[in-house]
Amino acid sequence: MPLRRRNGSAQVRQQDDDGRRPAAGSPRLDAADLGAELGARATLVQFSSAFCAPCRATRRVLDEVAGMVPGVTHVEIDAEGHLELVRALDVLKTPTVLVLDADGRVVRRAVGQPRTADVIAALGEAV
């Protein structure tokens, strides 16, 4: 499911939203898509909204994990301010967390507030 750009708009095919590893050819994001550099080993991408209490808790968990694991970066994206990307990635709820490998490929996807242990386990697939 590669992220495609046509006439300046991002497009991506549907993928499962159940937390399983996405199929081969999953979307690939880069620094231009995220507005921040990718982590050397992995990137935790969080889609949030302003009045989302679970988003604040998710931010704390992902910041903590990124601080514990060398080469991992946490990038938070305001869903309302990035509707094109939200639509391209089929983000339906906040928080939605994507785990990207070093090349920017989505290797894991989850909706809702994650537990620290689950984030660390998901990073195992990315690094």
From TrEMBL:
Q: Which InterPro entries match?
A: Thioredoxin-like_sf (IPR036249), Thioredoxin_CS (IPR017937), Thioredoxin_domain (IPR013766)
This chain's protein is named: Thioredoxin family protein
Q: Where is this region: Disordered?
A: 1-28
Origin species, per record, is: Streptomyces ardesiacus
Q: Which SUPFAM superfamilies is this protein grouped with? A: Thioredoxin-like
Q: Where is each Thioredoxin domain found?
A: 1-127
What CDD domains does the entry give?
A: TRX_family (cd02947)
Which segments of the protein form a coiled coil according to its record? none
